[in-house]
């Protein structure tokens, strides 16, 4: 909501990407306070937001879904971002709501981020169709790995001088958090996710098919994403991975966009979205190869959804985005709850929230209960992990 931040974008290299008539700002932001974003800005700007949404929706031939891209730790992303979810649900009940949520790392610089994140989580539980949680720390780790590969020269990479990953002196940018590069990873995720809607392919996947196939229970709509190859910008020429290696990478913990290890957790379902010159037989071969090392719930042993888009990302021969509905997301939520409880037990910073009209202490207890119930659902699934898979008899049809 901060005017200065949006103006900075409008004067930067991305200014042509945005329609300036569709932007909404206030003078100041939400001051890292979910209640300001949700209760104050939400009601103040609801009509204005709706008007601009309707205007955009009118231009669509086939409106499939809304993407909400927000951070969980601050005030506007968490507060106004989740207020928007409810507005979309009321106004466009048939249109899927996909949310890309950036979760704060343990070392983030917003003291109230555990409060903001837990209050936002309750809204995500109730009003989102699909949430792609992304962890700031994972993005930072991925960028560090790419930096290491580029610097060691192992991959024979070439970097343009004065690219976003080099400083003006031509030396490699280190130390400061490379937000451009971190955001670029998320942009690659969204580009892969929407590729079927934008390009031809032998096996297209609509966005609404993701929710239909990967979300067996309404609450368990958190999908862990992994990308391969990992690269930040088209001007970092990382040589292509072999196709089979790319599939293996997608299931390794180094390629996940949250700190998680899906291989040692339970899958409810998994989608593989492939771009480039890849055949359906390549997909099937790799799924069969990987299946023995992955644990799927007993009632959905064939829980794979696949898509093939013939156009690869710029500068690459092929790429893969894996979306997994997997219990490995649980530790992220447990860690968040622990950080929340540390503050909440002392009632620290609570008065900043309670002075906002419509905000009561019950908002915090309800949000914590909502998250605990979600964690419990994952616990129950994990408890079935070692159960034997029933070999159900095939349906026999009398001729």
Automatic annotation (TrEMBL):
InterPro entries: Epsilon_tubulin, Tub_FtsZ_C, Tubulin, Tubulin/FtsZ_2-layer-sand-dom, Tubulin/FtsZ_GTPase_sf, Tubulin_C, Tubulin_CS, Tubulin_FtsZ_GTPase. Residues 1-201 form the Tubulin/FtsZ GTPase domain. Keywords: Cytoplasm, Cytoskeleton, GTP-binding, Microtubule, Nucleotide-binding. The keyword Cell membrane does not apply. It holds the Pfam family Tubulin. Residues 203-338 form the Tubulin/FtsZ 2-layer sandwich domain. Belongs to the tubulin family. This is Tubulin epsilon chain isoform X3. The gene is LOC101401725.
């Amino acid at each position: 909501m901060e005017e200065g931040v949006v103006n900075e974008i409008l004067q930067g290299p991305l200014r042509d990407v945005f329609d300036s008539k569709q932007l909404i700002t206030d003078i100041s932001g939400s001051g890292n306070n979910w209640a300001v974003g949700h209760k104050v800005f939400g009601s103040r700007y609801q009509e204005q937001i709706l008007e601009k949404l309707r205007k955009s929706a009118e231009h669509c031939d086939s409106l499939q879904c809304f993407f909400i891209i927000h951070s969980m730790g601050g005030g506007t992303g968490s507060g106004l971002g989740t207020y928007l979810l409810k507005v979309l649900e009321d106004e466009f009940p048939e249109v899927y709501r996909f949310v890309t949520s950036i979760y704060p790392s343990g070392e983030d610089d917003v003291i109230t981020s555990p409060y903001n994140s837990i209050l936002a989580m309750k809204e995500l539980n109730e009003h989102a169709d699909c949430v792609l949680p992304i962890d700031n720390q994972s993005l930072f780790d991925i960028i560090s790995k790419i930096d290491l590969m580029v610097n060691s020269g192992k991959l024979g990479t070439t970097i343009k001088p004065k690219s976003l990953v080099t400083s003006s002196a031509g030396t490699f940018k280190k130390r400061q958090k490379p937000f451009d590069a971190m955001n670029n990873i998320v942009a690659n995720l969204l580009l892969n996710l929407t590729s079927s809607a934008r390009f031809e392919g032998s096996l297209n996947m609509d966005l609404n098919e993701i929710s239909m196939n990967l979300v067996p229970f309404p609450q368990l709509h958190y999908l862990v994403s992994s990308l391969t190859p990992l690269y930040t910008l088209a001007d970092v020429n990382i040589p292509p991975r072999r196709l089979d290696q790319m599939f293996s990478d997608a299931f390794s913990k180094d390629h996940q966009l949250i700190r998680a290890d899906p291989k040692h957790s339970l899958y409810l379902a998994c989608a593989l979205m492939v771009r480039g010159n890849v055949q359906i037989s390549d997909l099937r071969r790799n799924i069969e190869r990987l299946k023995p090392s992955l644990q799927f719930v007993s009632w959905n042993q064939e829980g794979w959804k696949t898509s093939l888009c013939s156009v690869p990302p710029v500068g690459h021969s092929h790429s893969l985005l894996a979306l997994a509905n997997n219990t490995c997301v649980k530790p992220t939520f447990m860690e968040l709850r622990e950080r929340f409880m540390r503050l909440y037990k002392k009632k620290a910073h609570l008065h900043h929230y309670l002075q906002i009209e419509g905000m009561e202490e019950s908002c915090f207890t309800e949000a914590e209960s909502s998250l605990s119930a979600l964690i419990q659902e994952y616990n129950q699934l994990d408890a079935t992990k070692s159960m034997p898979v029933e070999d159900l008899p095939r349906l026999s049809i009398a001729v």
